[in-house]
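Notes from the 1:1 (GR / supervisor)

We went over the backlog. Supervisor wanted to see one worked example end to end before approving the batch request, so GR pasted a single chain during the call. The sequence is below; no edits were made to it. Supervisor asked that the structure be written out right there so they could see what the output format looks like.
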Amino acid sequence: MQAEFPGHVWIYDYIFDQTLEGSTLKILTLTDEFTCQSLAQRVAESFTSVDVKDVLYEVIAQRGATGFIRSDNGPEFIARDLGIWLAFQDIGIRFF
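Structure output shown during the call:
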């Protein structure tokens, strides 16, 4: 599935970094695939599916829902939980 217009496909992904003290930082990014516009960025030591849902709620409230959400390398439990959550939302988003 390739994005065909703005808002069609959003991608969430993680970028990893490290503090000077050696602590790992995880950066959650949410991007519009068609425009490459950053929709959200959050930094934490770890993320749960609830954290990802909170970011999605915020962006959906501001922009409306996308048609599809893609995750390239998120932990499997987060992807599965988000897929189930999206299936029960009345906003028509598909997760792949």
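Supervisor's comment: The first strand starts at residue 9 and ends at 18.
Batch request approved.
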